[in-house]
Amino acid sequence: MMRFLKKLVPDIYIGLVILFLYLPIAILIIYSFNSVPKSFLWGGFTFQNYTSLFSGSDGGELLEALLTTLKIASIASVVSTVFAVISCLGMAYLSKKFQSVLMNLTYIPNVMPELVVGIAFMLLFSFLGVQKGQFTLVCSHIAFCLPFAILSIEPKIRQLDKNLSEAAMDLGATQWQTLRLVIIPEIMPGILSALLLAFTLSVDDYLISNFNVNSSVQTLPMKIYSMAKFGVNPKMNALTTILFAAVFLMLILSNISSLKEAKEKNGGKKK
To answer: What is the tens place of the pLDDT at every residue in 114-156?
Structure first.
């Protein structure tokens, strides 16, 4: 009996955690098909919320905010990842003492509240006399995402075997060829994780965006927050359901790709 309870309690705990995490998402998806607008009363199944998302005025504003968010996030994630790669490669050639100092400086923005970061950049742009807009938004998002990108790439740089680059250069490769053909492929998992993390942080950000952009530009979190003040909008449920489905599909494809690579490696080892 005790053995059965020891096995049952962890299963119940895991089930409750999964329920706590995914029940709100399940409710959001279900009510995205609700025919009664701005209500938690179920009025019937409909696709009207999805069709109006691409036709109504509110839906057009949501899609415009989504496109703006994706554009800002794409630029910020790519630029911050490139800067992170350059920074990590530069730190690799410093002494361990300076590496430790620089990494400790990198940790500070990660633990600092976004409110402080947003206000700090707002004051900086005001001091420089830069007019708020998409440019200031991109700059603030790059600075916000850069420390997280560095923390994703730096462990891969630390694990990198320096003999590989030395061997490549001994065989006649130039520094650029060594970087492009040897170092970058070795740290590519860290680069991809940094890119995805920076993209996610930029898409999700509200506070920094709110302080560093004018009223003519709205990101998706800003638009949803302004719409949520007037109650639950079914178009928000429809849009977030589409985003969840897209992310879920990407995770499935990523897992399938990982399984195929693992099978190919295991098949090569058996041969």
So the answer is: 888 889 999 999 999 888 888 999 999 999 999 999 988 988 8
CA of 125: how far to CAs of 4, 105, 121, 167, in Å? 62, 22, 6, 47
Dist CA 173 CA 179 (whole Å): 10
Residue 56 to residue 87: CA distance in whole angstroms: 46
Main-chain dihedrals φ then ψ at residue 215, nearest 5 degrees? -70, -15
- pLDDT (0 to 100) of residue 57: 63
| Angle in degrees, 0-180, between the axes of helices 134-159 and 96-111, rounded to the nearest 10 | 140
Q: What is the number of H-type helices and E-type strands within the chain? A: 13, 0
Handedness of CA 120, 126, 130, 132 (dihedral sign): positive
Measured CA to CA, the distance from residue 237 to residue 40 in angstroms comes to: 12
Tens of pLDDT, residues 58-117: 667 888 888 999 999 999 999 999 999 998 888 887 778 888 888 888 888 888 888 888
Chain position carrying tokens 């899609």? 63
